[in-house]
């Protein structure tokens, strides 16, 4: 029999960005919170040896241990799903701070178009523009309603940036000025302006200067050391939950974090949760933590899986398109890019920061006319200088042999003489893209693994090639000696890294028939359960998701505080 | 089972709180950068650094050339150069194969001079060789390419089988073992593995080749603490500065050459 602990006001499942923000807001307001985290404790002191590409980047030091838990994948329903046995396409975080520790820090707001994507697409192009099976829907919230929460997240994290001329209105400037401009970024900016495009500095959670946030948390400026993505920041210059919201919550004395606590079920009766059951992975003991409110704040896959295993909310049925949990899984279309080689130039490519770069949104959202195009939405086109480490960056012109003398000579010749311009493409949901429970494969505790059914569609193939051509135009203007660009987008495969921007499955909306949570991320089917994260996105935009995840977490915090006072549905 | 080699071994587990680590490079950097807000040092790693600042220095990690009592002018002994997993024969085959993938040429040293085969041997002996953090539970089914590796063999088993099969194939084509072939013949054997022209039932020849290629590059360019990239010569070839505290002074400048640092420099100071 499971041991039952004393009840708490709120229990949080997973202590990353979502859990950390919720914990800080609720404890500041006086609520008692228990945070359950399946991984281990994390602190900046852990990163003494962080400049180690092999350990962190190639061997995935900070990521979930796949021997215990992974996802299964198939391209379509005719295939047998098989486990992702090793990392490739995306990386799942683990431990305190979660994926918020190993992110790059690129912090974009979604466009006003995103939140009303279905109505605005129909309004401008008519219903026929949306192909059969594409299940885009409005988010049940507008950009203007989201704006204060974006603002709050950006001030907490200390985002460094400049106003994007093609994005939604801001109530205030970024709290910090943009980062420094490297020579490749200057070249990109000049070329883009010549092409009448609108480049701007990438909004960055790597601080451009020392900064103290509204919670009184002081952090140091970024040193451009080139180790962000897949690494933790030894300086605390990159905003992550461990150096921002979690200490604020802990300081109140009202947050208790239990690491090595793997939540397996949400207990519920009569349409309300009563708490959660978890396994203490150090002892194997099963423990029940009763709570008035349950907040599910793990990564996308586990948010969905936990609801399905707990039989909470209506499971999605892809045959009929009914039900909601697992619906609208989306990703990112990242291969639409052009790689330029610069024979007579050398750059400091070893230097950089995860969110050091320039973007332009002339081909993102509905900022351009899609009348004659076979896709909707678009991509943010960017040049990034994230710090290019030598194992994973051996760019050679196409036609170069993959190994041997020619490969070695070319990879060394161009080691500091290449620039990539790429589009981060949006990803639209389709009726047959979803997450459910795998019928065969289990995790280390005997529970079913989440199963992904997903592939690229015509929409994605058209978008990727369009973006690659636009990127090529910019490279030409920048003066590349030689350009290799994407010619066509192949099938989605889980083996090569693309993006850790997995979204959907517990989506928000205005209608309980088509969404799992309302615009406070409160479950329609269980009023004291809130499900926070990119799982709430009905589709994925042409941007990194974290700003929107953070903003939604602040929105949910407000909802939870309201709910704690008066109960019932918040909308 | 993981890394027993290199400077890590000088710091017993759990000694972090004991002030057993010196960080002169960080201290210098912080002092020079005036790294504080209103006099208060911020950031966990930085805070801990200042705390350590006053602690007594621990002995530097063993650096063979600095060992007291070492014979003067003797070639420093590299204790990393021994095998943890491979047999002598397997090692010789691997050493020759990695050299073809990343050969010595005008640009600088190749895999052999960089110690790549030692790197791979040491990696196979540890977690990576055992696929320790990967999902290796049954059932095993044949999958589609888009689903990735679905076999039951671990990397160390694949390498052992493949190195033997390289000799078998070399014998069938040229009546010699792989190490005794000319460079061109070795290249043709490797190409046939790369393009699945070698008929094997136990492992995928191209799957092995991909792993061989990627681990060769890892051995050439990972921190020297793992046994490859000897003397940071892999980094020097491509002007990669390794482990540096800050590029804030050069990020907006033209290409700036600088001598590389390793993680050992972080432990030992300069």
UniProtKB/TrEMBL annotation, chain A:
<protein>
    <submittedName>
        <fullName>GMC family oxidoreductase</fullName>
    </submittedName>
</protein>
<dbReference type="GO" id="GO:0050660">
    <property type="term" value="F:flavin adenine dinucleotide binding"/>
</dbReference>
<comment type="similarity">
    <text>Belongs to the GMC oxidoreductase family.</text>
</comment>
<keyword id="KW-0274">FAD</keyword>
<feature type="domain" description="Glucose-methanol-choline oxidoreductase N-terminal">
    <location>
        <begin position="180"/>
        <end position="330"/>
    </location>
</feature>
<dbReference type="InterPro" id="IPR036188">
    <property type="entry name" value="FAD/NAD-bd_sf"/>
</dbReference>
<dbReference type="GO" id="GO:0016614">
    <property type="term" value="F:oxidoreductase activity, acting on CH-OH group of donors"/>
</dbReference>
<dbReference type="Pfam" id="PF00732">
    <property type="entry name" value="GMC_oxred_N"/>
</dbReference>
<dbReference type="InterPro" id="IPR007867">
    <property type="entry name" value="GMC_OxRtase_C"/>
</dbReference>
<dbReference type="InterPro" id="IPR000172">
    <property type="entry name" value="GMC_OxRdtase_N"/>
</dbReference>
<dbReference type="Pfam" id="PF05199">
    <property type="entry name" value="GMC_oxred_C"/>
</dbReference>
<keyword id="KW-0285">Flavoprotein</keyword>
<feature type="region of interest" description="Disordered">
    <location>
        <begin position="161"/>
        <end position="180"/>
    </location>
</feature>
<feature type="domain" description="Glucose-methanol-choline oxidoreductase C-terminal">
    <location>
        <begin position="434"/>
        <end position="553"/>
    </location>
</feature>
<keyword id="KW-0560">Oxidoreductase</keyword>
From TrEMBL, chain B:
<feature type="region of interest" description="Disordered">
    <location>
        <begin position="55"/>
        <end position="74"/>
    </location>
</feature>
<keyword id="KW-1133">Transmembrane helix</keyword>
<dbReference type="InterPro" id="IPR006311">
    <property type="entry name" value="TAT_signal"/>
</dbReference>
<protein>
    <submittedName>
        <fullName>Gluconate 2-dehydrogenase subunit 3 family protein</fullName>
    </submittedName>
</protein>
<keyword id="KW-0472">Membrane</keyword>
<feature type="transmembrane region" description="Helical">
    <location>
        <begin position="29"/>
        <end position="50"/>
    </location>
</feature>
<feature type="region of interest" description="Disordered">
    <location>
        <begin position="1"/>
        <end position="25"/>
    </location>
</feature>
<dbReference type="Pfam" id="PF13618">
    <property type="entry name" value="Gluconate_2-dh3"/>
</dbReference>
<keyword id="KW-0812">Transmembrane</keyword>
<feature type="compositionally biased region" description="Low complexity">
    <location>
        <begin position="56"/>
        <end position="74"/>
    </location>
</feature>
<dbReference type="InterPro" id="IPR027056">
    <property type="entry name" value="Gluconate_2DH_su3"/>
</dbReference>
């Amino acid at each position: 029999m499971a041991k039952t602990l004393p009840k708490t006001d709120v229990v949080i499942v997973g202590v990353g960005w979502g859990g950390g923000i919720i914990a800080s807001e609720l404890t500041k307001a006086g609520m008692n919170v228990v945070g359950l985290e399946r991984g281990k404790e994390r602190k900046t002191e852990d990163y003494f040896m962080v400049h180690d590409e092999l350990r962190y980047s190639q061997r995935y030091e900070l990521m979930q241990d796949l021997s215990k838990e992974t996802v299964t994948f198939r391209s379509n329903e005719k295939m047998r799903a098989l486990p992702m046995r090793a990392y490739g396409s995306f990386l799942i975080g683990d431990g305190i701070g979660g994926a918020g520790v190993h992110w790059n820090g690129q912090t974009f707001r979604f466009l006003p178009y995103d939140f009303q994507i279905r109505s605005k697409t129909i309004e401008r192009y008519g219903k026929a523009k949306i192909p059969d099976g594409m299940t885009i829907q409005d988010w049940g919230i507008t950009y203007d309603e989201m704006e204060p929460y974006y603002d709050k997240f950006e001030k907490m994290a200390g985002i460094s940036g400049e106003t994007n001329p093609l994005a939604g209105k801001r109530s205030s400037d970024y709290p910090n000025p943009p980062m420094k401009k490297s020579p490749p970024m200057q070249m990109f900016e000049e070329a883009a302006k010549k092409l009448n495009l609108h480049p701007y500095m990438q909004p960055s959670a790597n601080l451009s200067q020392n900064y103290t946030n509204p919670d009184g948390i002081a952090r140091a400026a970024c040193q451009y050391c080139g180790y962000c993505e897949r690494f933790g920041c030894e300086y605390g210059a990159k905003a992550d939950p461990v150096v921002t919201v979690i200490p604020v919550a802990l300081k109140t004395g009202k947050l208790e974090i239990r690491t090595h606590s793997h939540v397996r079920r949400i207990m519920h009766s009569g349409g309300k949760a009563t708490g959660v059951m978890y396994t203490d992975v150090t002892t194997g003991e099963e423990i029940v933590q009763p709570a008035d409110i349950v907040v599910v704040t793990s990564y996308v896959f586990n948010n969905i899986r936990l609801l399905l295993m707990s039989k909470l909310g209506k499971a999605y049925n892809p045959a009929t398109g009914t039900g909601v949990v697992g619906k609208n899984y989306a990703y990112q279309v990242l291969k639409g890019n052009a790689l330029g080689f610069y024979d007579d130039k050398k750059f400091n490519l070893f230097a950089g920061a995860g969110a050091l770069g320039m973007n332009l949104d002339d081909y993102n959202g509905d900022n351009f006319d899609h009348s004659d195009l076979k896709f909707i939405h678009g991509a943010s086109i960017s040049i990034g200088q994230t710090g290019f480490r030598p194992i994973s960056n051996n760019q050679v012109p196409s036609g170069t042999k993959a190994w041997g003398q020619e490969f070695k000579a070319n990879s060394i010749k161009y080691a500091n003489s290449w620039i990539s311009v790429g589009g981060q493409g949006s990803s639209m949901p389709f009726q047959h893209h979803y997450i459910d429970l795998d019928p065969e494969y289990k995790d280390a505790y005997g529970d079913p693994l989440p199963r992904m059914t997903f592939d690229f569609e015509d929409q994605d193939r058209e978008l990727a090639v369009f973006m690659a051509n636009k990127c090529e135009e910019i490279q030409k203007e920048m003066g590349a000696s030689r350009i290799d660009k994407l010619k066509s987008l192949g099938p989605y495969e889980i083996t090569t890294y693309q993006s850790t921007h997995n979204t959907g499955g517990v989506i928000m909306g205005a209608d309980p028939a088509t969404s799992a949570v309302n615009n406070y991320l409160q479950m329609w089917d269980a009023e004291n359960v809130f499900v926070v994260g990119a799982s709430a996105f009905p589709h994925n935009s042409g941007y990194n998701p974290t700003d929107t995840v953070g903003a939604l977490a602040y929105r949910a915090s407000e909802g939870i505080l309201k709910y704690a006072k008066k109960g019932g549905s918040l909308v | 089972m993981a890394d027993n080699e290199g400077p890590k071994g000088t710091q017993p587990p759990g000694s972090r709180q004991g002030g057993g680590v010196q960080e002169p490079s960080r201290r210098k950097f912080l002092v020079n950068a005036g790294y504080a807000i209103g006099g208060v040092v911020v950031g966990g790693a930085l805070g801990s650094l200042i705390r350590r600042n006053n602690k007594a220095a621990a002995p530097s990690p063993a650096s063979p050339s600095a060992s007291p009592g070492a014979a003067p002018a003797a070639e420093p002994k590299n204790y990393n150069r021994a095998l943890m997993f491979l047999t002598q024969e397997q090692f010789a085959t691997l050493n020759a194969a990695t050299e073809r993938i990343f050969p010595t040429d005008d640009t600088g040293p190749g895999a052999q001079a960089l110690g790549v085969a030692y790197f791979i041997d040491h990696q196979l002996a540890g977690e990576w060789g055992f696929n320790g953090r990967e999902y290796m539970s049954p059932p095993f089914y044949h999958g589609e390419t888009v689903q990735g590796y679905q076999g039951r063999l671990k990397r160390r088993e694949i390498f052992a089988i493949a190195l033997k099969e390289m000799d078998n194939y070399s014998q069938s084509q040229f009546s010699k073992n792989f190490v005794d072939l000319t460079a061109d013949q070795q290249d043709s054997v490797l190409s046939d593995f790369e393009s699945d022209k070698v008929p094997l039932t136990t492992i995928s020849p191209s799957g092995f080749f991909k792993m061989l290629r990627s681990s060769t590059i890892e051995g050439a360019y990972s921190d020297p603490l793992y046994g490859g990239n000897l003397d940071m010569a892999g980094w020097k070839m491509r002007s990669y500065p390794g482990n540096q505290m800050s590029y804030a002074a050069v990020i907006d400048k033209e290409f700036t050459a600088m001598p590389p640092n390793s993680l050992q420099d972080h432990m030992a100071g300069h």
